[in-house]
## 1
Amino acid sequence: MEMMRSLRHVNIDHLHVGWYQSTYYGSFVSRALLDSQFSYQHAIEESVVLIYDPIKTAQGSLSLKAYRLTPKLMEICKEKDFTPEGLKKASVGFENMFEEVPIVIKNSHLINVLLWELEDKSTVSDKHELLNLSSRSDISS
């Protein structure tokens, strides 16, 4: 909060709408996450938490999801009633604790052109040629 006050004081345009957490294989639910997201969502209604999985991303597809706490879970967090009876009374289970917010990632046209040119310049044989030890002139025998 102090950082946002400082940014506002020097007239920097900012829009803080949440935070992020990295995770491995999608296991991200913890009491700390619930408490943090509740604090953010209580202060900024449209707040989200971004969950990033570097292992899944390294396997070839970007693993980035945005979540918000459901209204039912927000009520439980306000009352701090995380007992099994409290969760059962509110009909909250693992499957309805979070609501997923769709993410749309867009590149500028210049980035799209750059990526296209990089892909066009790199051929499969060039990539494998870097691994061929017999073609390396800087390796001495």
## 2
Amino acid sequence: VAGLGNYGMRGTRHSVGMEVLDRMARQLAVAEGWRVDRRCCADVALATAQGLELVLLKPRRFMNLNGLSVASAAEIYSLGPEDIYLVHDDLDKALGKVAIKLGGSARGHNGVQSCISALHSNEMTRLRVGIGRP
């Protein structure tokens, strides 16, 4: 599960994917388990939920380069694009509304496009979190 955003810019609308992962880590009792993984240039926490092993990933890059971290982590953890969930902001959704998107285009989102390019696939499931338009 990759929370897309601009690393170091906590609390901004475009980093909502990382905020969602922080919340997930707290709910899964692994919030103290975040560590820097230089191999994929990301903060990583490992968790288990309902018998599934999860890799929570917050890229340490700007949004338009998030895909490099996601692709590196996919290789390290032997994951295919179909195993990856991207959590990201969506300007076209009202604030707080969420939607699941199964594959398809990036719809203009630079972080998602970066992941599609780096993984050579658009099969990732996306959790789109509405931030609304200013």
## 3
Amino acid sequence: VPCPQANPFQHRICHVFSTSEAGDNSMSFEDFLDMLSVFSDSATFDIKSHYAFRIFDFDNDGTLDRKDLEQLVNCLTGQGEESRLSRAEMEQLIQNILEESDIDKDGTINLSEFQHVVSRSPDFARCGGAQQ
């Protein structure tokens, strides 16, 4: 199944849900069904937040560090010259995110910290269809 093209996280979504042993991020029909179940209205908050965390963990190390957060911001703002943040703006935004989210102050956001933050966001629940 080819990857959806409209989502700025399309490659990450395919990577997270792909079970291909070739490492090419291709998705089997079963992978596609797994993805649909996670994005469905019936998926729980824990499942949705777990997969969102995995999608945002660009280096697959189990934490969201500064590099992951920078890639996340770039995906959300686009790569165009007019929408790209300056280095100072990016640093300030990442610092703000860490101050809000990094409960244990280790410089990264782990899954439980991520879930704590998004649980307070009505947009995550509404847009993701997550049920608490």
## 4
Amino acid sequence: QGPVCTNLGLKPGQRLTVKGKIAPNAKSFVMNLGKDATLLGLHFNPRFDAHGDVNTIVCNSKKVEEWGAEHRETVFPFQKGGTAEITFGVNQNDVTVHLPGHQFTFPNRLNLSVFDYFDTQGDFTLQSLSWE
């Protein structure tokens, strides 16, 4: 478990940019964005080789203990031992995930009006966090 941020106050029209280093022997890492640890609007989980997925980004939402349907992206711009920069753009109805050379959106299934919570887990070391 990496750093946990609370009271972010991210609203539609704002962006959160995360920079960090991926472990040389990485299997997967996670970034969670939501209201708190129990209400996750976006669970972002790049998997190098975990849970039966290879080089796949799995996204989901979580309401208390209940996970939603998994969404998979096959574009995988991450390298073991490399650095990563990911920007999450908060919109009214979804979150746009900006990756190097690729972007996709994930619906705001919990209808969160504000994203206050962010954490990282797994084989990723957070170097900087910025929002605008």
